[in-house]
Amino acid sequence: MLSQLELISEHRCFDGWQRYYQHPSQTIGLPMRFSVYLPPQAGADAAKNAESDANVMGSAKLPVLFFLAGLTCTEETFMTKAAAQQYAAEHGIILVTPDTSPRGAGFPGEDDGWDFGTGAGFYVDATQSPWSQHYRMESYVVSELYDIATTLLPGDAERVGIFGHSMGGHGALVLAQRYPGKFKSVSAFAPISAPTQCPWGEKAFSGYLGNDKSTWEAYDASLLMQKQSSAPYPEGILVDQGLADQFLAEQLYPEALEEACQKVGQPLTLRRHEGYDHSYYFILSFIADHMKFHAERL
Hints:
9 helices
């Protein structure tokens, strides 16, 4: 029910509204937060306060673009740092960003490191105890939050795209391939393209999925692409990578994704940028291109 969405805050932004919500997640089993930018094309109803949010259901249906953030981020990071709202307003796109993990599960070790547990859900459904009880970020994004965006909020289920950064780039590339019927476009900034081969992925997958590495393959974008019988996104995939990225050599492996796409004939625009690092300054520099890329496909 829409009444389950608690409006935490809202801010007028480029003639639309930047909102932050909390809700009791049935998938996660804990309260979850997400952010949404409603562009001016959503109509006057989008400007209503939480008391009259039911009116949003009557607003015009618009394309939806999910952004999955990286390690240590929250639902606020992209919305406050990427300046994407101006382009969402220009193209008439709803932006939705989930948190990067459950919060407050209380599991031992949950807060011991920045690359596992809190802030590091890796957009998988954990199968290992105790993580499997709450760490179900894959299902949360593609089912629960997807449904919220396309039923309770004025998103068009026929026009949904996904993109992300780093861990979130991994999530976008993986979920787009695992659920091609739900997502019409996909792009990424500095994605973890082969997590089965890098320290971040090995740590996360062994903890969430167990030591049987064959089960990890379902969440490796490059391995998933290699198994495709044809190009899953014939209109192309866009990836930007900074060549001064401090994680490029050890963690990201864009060349693995490039090789996999070439193998199956998947059009990929992989742009390598001299001097750019892993930060949001990098995202800021190319966010307009990604918003236009998705707008053209949605």
